[in-house]
Every structure is written in C-alpha cells, then in structure tokens.
Design a protein that fits this description.
By secondary structure, the protein is of the alpha/beta class. 30% of the residues lie in helices and 24% in strands. It has 4 domains: 5-143, Rossmann fold; 150-219, 3-Layer(aba) Sandwich (Glutaredoxin), CATH 3.40.30.10; 228-342 and 471-549, FAD/NAD(P)-binding domain (3-Layer(bba) Sandwich); 353-466, FAD/NAD(P)-binding domain (3-Layer(bba) Sandwich), CATH 3.50.50.60. The chain contains 15 helices and 28 strands. Strands 12, 13, 14, 15, 16, 17 and 28 form a 7-stranded mixed beta sheet that branches. α9 (240-251) runs parallel beside α10, α9 (240-251) crosses α15 and α13 packs parallel to α14 (414-422).
Length: 551
C-alpha cells in the first residue's frame, strides 16, 4: 500500500530544511514527505500526483512563496486534492501581529486555507507536532479512516442501516458505511459466516448483528441501568450544555448521572468546524468537542446512561424521581434539563421516504463522502447550515444553500457568510424553500419554490441536508414545568411563580429543584459557547439548592 504524502513548499532553503527535518523525523513511518522550493513546481507535482491516483494528506506553505502569499498556493490545492489539509507556516515573530492575523482570518474565511502553524523551533517542538497531528486527524476524519472507526454493513442505504448511521452520528462515534455487495463490504463479511444484516463492526472487531440502540450502547461501554439509584444530580441530555453540567458537577464532587436517548453532543455534532469557540484558534468539529467533553466528565466521575429516554419526572419527599423507558428509575436531589432541540422535519412524504438515501437531517460531517463529485442542496439559515455547506463543498461538485430568509446575514455569523460568498462551488438561493422531490432508490431531484412569486423549479440533486427550525424535546415533561407556546422551558424571571415560597433561581424552572439550560430553555442564545456557559452556571445554582435543603 502506497503511503499518503505530506507536502511542504517554501522558497527559503533553510526554512524548508527545518520543516523537512521535523516531518521526516516524526512521520516517515506512516507518510511520505515531499519538499518543494517553488509554487509552480508544487502545483505541477500536485497535478501529477492526482493523475497518478496518489493521496496527499497535508500541504504546508510559507507565508510568502515566489513573492506571493502562500495562501494563493494553498487555495489551488483542492483542485487536485479536495480533502488535503492546507496549512500556512507562520514565523513566531508574526504571532500577534495585526496584519498577519487579519490575513489569516481573511484566508480562512474565504476558504483559501484551513489552518496555520508556527514554524518549527529546534527539536523537540511538540507544539508544532500537536498542530500537525491535529491536521492529519482532520484529514483522516474526512476520509472515514479516523482511529476507532465503526463499520456498518447493510443491504441498502435505507431502513435500519440508515437508522444505525444516525445513531452513531448522534453519539459522535466515527463510522463509515458500505453496501454488502461492495468490495469493502465483501471484505468485512469474509469469514464471518451467515449474518443478519445490517452489521455493526466495532473497532475491537466485535460484530453486532442488526443491533438495537441499547446493544450498541452496551458494546460501547455504557451500561448504567438505574434501579432507584440515588444521585446528587441527574442531567437529562448530552449536548454541549449537558456535557458542561456533567463536567462541572462531577468535578465539584456531585454524584452525577447523565441520561440521553442516544445523542452525544446534540446538534453540535453536525458542525464540521466551529471556528469561533474560545480556546480553539484552529477550529474544532462539534463531534470532537463532544468526545473530549464526554471523556473529561467520565474521568471526573460522571456516569452516562445512553440509549435510554426519560419519560417522566416527579417530585418525591426526598428527591425527584426520573423514570426511564427501559423501566429504570433514578432519584436525584437536583435535575438539569439539557434536552436541546432537533431539526424540524420537512414533512414532504416523497423526500421522507428517501431518508438515508440522499436525504439527511444534519449529518453533513458523516455523510459527506457519499456525495463526492455530486450536486447537493443544504436547507437552513443558521450557523450549522453554513458550516455544513462549507464542509460539503470539499466533496460535492456543486452545493446549493436554500434559505427561506431574504439574506444570509439574518441568521448566520459574518465569517461564515463571507466564506460562503467566496466559494465558487456554492450557490445561495434566498427566499426559497423545498416543496417536493424524489428518485428511484436514491434522491435524484428536488422542487424549489420561490416564496415571493410562487414559481416552482425542478433541479437535479444527489443529496439533501436539512437543518431547519428547532423543535424542543419537552413533550415528555409534566404540566408542572411551564413552557412557552413553542414548547421551550421557562426559567427564572419568566416563570409564573405564584404559590411558591421563593422566587426561582435564574435557570430554575417552575418545578423547584429542576433547572433548564441550553437550547431547550426559552430565551437561550443558540450558540455552543452559551450552552457550555449555562451548563457551568447551573452547577453553582445546584449547590445553592442543595445547601438550602440541607440534604
């Protein structure tokens, strides 16, 4: 098997030798290293490599190559290698320089590069290698070859195989799918004997035949099954807000349980690159952020009950009882609701029938390889839709963003709008909605309607990624928990506190001892950072509640 390449380009021989030394010393066992002294030579080599079917994982370029910005060279890389990571080599003395920072921001925002790295210092420069390793992991994720990837083998794209991919995606578990009669599928099935499809092959080699969600949870190590077990804190929901509450609750000594019907990271897992999250200047995917937070909470002592849904909560004399759909019951001194919200269903029967066969809710990060070289449509106007469009543009031939609003700026951050506008393979259609479509076994066409004129147009489409609306997961809550007309939970000053002996705390609901954080809360700011902040604040309020009860 031919090893993939790491390519470095710099017209300063001394600086190029420094980069070559670091790349060969650390990565020669798994990658080939190619160092080139000019932009023209680099582009010619990349074209030749692409023609020969080679793989390039990473391209590094100096700030200035042949008298021009290195970002101009990096911007050309996707023509030959759309999945290769493109990284600018920046001098240490330029770190903090406003001109350099503006140039990097503009290059990232307009899609001309992915990241930057400070040039290597004399070895060992572990900071340099941490950045390089992060880029190589991003490349592996994009190719479906990240470490500990789960394989799903199915007879068709739809049905249970589609559901399993959704479950694994919601749990932020790297996975890839193949049909049983494909070359990869036959390889995975070789020697297994007769099996009931779909199969899930765990990284350990353990094979699950048409597994239930609960069986997947057990195989992944989540086996908590409470039988009136008592906890200081039970968190319902495992998105950014719930994970944050789990980290802070467990780290501060609270016996903590996190329950979720299957989602690790919530809607954040559909974000392929969150670039404005504090502390991640190179950006971070929603799935990676969720995996890190989960491991952090687990090490602090939080326990997780995945693939289990809370069906009821009710106050008791000595706590709050939470009933699970599996029949288990957990009793908590305090509860944090972090159930988030999910994308609204499109409600077009012909398209719902193709769910998993070209029609996806979220899932742009995991399903992007399926639409490589094809025409796809993304529906939505928030940041998650913008991130999905940019991610899909690395794979698809053409990406159309369909937005009901009159402008992108109505619901999307400026840096995303700028990058979308600067990407030539992305088309934006504002004031438009999807009203119909279809295909034989896989999505083939969509019908778009102009909201102003009512005009309908049928367009070819091989993929539809839906990221519309927000429906809170609150239908299971008892009437005692007040909600607004859309179902979002009221907290703090928005609660009708009549008949209570005290005013609710800022994040407390109308049911004493029950708090709400993140997207499920009325009036919340729909950002990952805000959800994480609310999760941490909730724990301080939990301490106040527990101190007041003296329990």
């Amino acid at each position: 098997m031919t090893l993939p390449l790491l390519v470095a380009v710099d017209d300063d021989p001394g600086l190029l030798r420094d980069v070559e030394r670091e790349l060969r010393t650390r990565y020669a066992g798994d990658y080939r290293v190619c160092c080139l002294g000019s932009a023209g030579e680099a582009l010619a080599v990349l074209r030749r490599l692409a023609g020969a079917g080679e793989e390039v994982a990473l391209v590094l370029a100096g700030e200035v190559v042949d008298g021009r910005s290195g970002t101009e060279l990096l911007a050309e890389v996707p023509r030959s290698f759309p999945h290769a990571q493109r990284v600018l080599l920046v001098a240490w003395g330029h770190l903090g320089d406003s001109g350099t920072g503006n140039a990097i921001f503009d290059a990232v925002a307009t899609g001309r590069m992915d990241h930057y790295v400070i040039r290597p210092a004399p070895p060992p420069d572990e900071q340099f290698h941490q950045a390089i390793s992060g880029s190589l992991l991003a490349w592996a994720d994009a190719r479906g070859s990240a470490p500990h990837t789960v394989d799903v083998v199915g007879e068709t794209w739809t049905g249970r195989a589609s559901e399993l991919r959704e479950v694994l995606g919601r749990c932020a578990i790297p996975h890839r799918f193949c049909l049983a009669d494909s070359e990869q599928g036959r390889t995975l099935l070789a020697g297994t004997g007769p099996r009931t499809l779909p199969l899930v092959v765990m990284p350990s080699g353990h094979v699950l035949e048409d597994p239930s969600d609960a069986e997947i949870a057990r195989a992944a190590g989540s086996t908590v099954d409470p039988d009136r077990d008592r906890y200081d804190l039970v968190i319902v929901g495992c998105g950014p807000a719930g994970l944050s509450a789990g980290v802070y609750g467990a780290s501060e000594g609270l016996r903590t349980l996190v329950v979720d019907s299957g989602s690790l990271g919530g809607q954040a897992t559909s974000s392929s690159a969150i670039r404005n999250y504090l502390g991640f200047p190179r950006g971070v995917s929603g799935a990676e952020l969720a995996r890190r937070a989960y491991q952090q909470a687990w090490v602090f002592g939080a326990r997780f009950a995945f693939m289990q849904r809370v069906t009821d909560l009710a106050p008791e004399p000595d706590g709050i009882a939470l009933t699970l759909d599996t029949g288990g019951v957990a009793v908590a001194r305090a509860v944090v609701l972090a159930t988030g919200a999910s994308y609204r269903l499109l409600g077009v029967p012909a398209l719902e029938a193709l769910r998993g066969a070209g029609v996806f809710y979220g899932a742009a990060a995991s399903e992007a390889p399926l639409v490589a070289g094809r025409d796809v449509v993304v529906v939505g106007g928030a940041n998650s839709a913008g991130q999905a469009v940019l991610h899909l543009a690395h794979y698809a031939r053409r990406v159309t963003l369909v937005v009901r609003a009159a402008t992108l700026a109505a619901g999307m951050s400026d840096y995303l709008v700028r990058q979308i506008e600067a990407t030539p393979t992305i088309e934006v259609r504002t004031g438009t909605e999807v009203v119909d479509g279809g295909g034989e076994g896989w999505l083939e066409r969509l019908v778009l309607r102009d909201r102003a004129t009512g005009t309908r147009e049928t367009v070819a489409a091989d993929g539809l990624f839906l990221m519309i609306g927000a429906r809170p997961h609150t239908e299971w809550l008892p009437p005692a928990v007040q909600r607004d007309a859309a179902g979002f939970v009221m907290t703090g000053p928005d609660v009708d506190a009549g008949g209570r002996d005290r005013a609710p705390l800022p994040l407390e609901t109308s049911l004493p001892g029950v708090l709400a954080v993140g997207d499920v809360r009325h009036g919340s700011v729909r950002r990952v950072a805000s959800a994480v902040g609310e999760g941490s604040i909730a724990i301080q309020q939990v301490h106040r509640l527990l101190a007041a009860t003296g329990a």
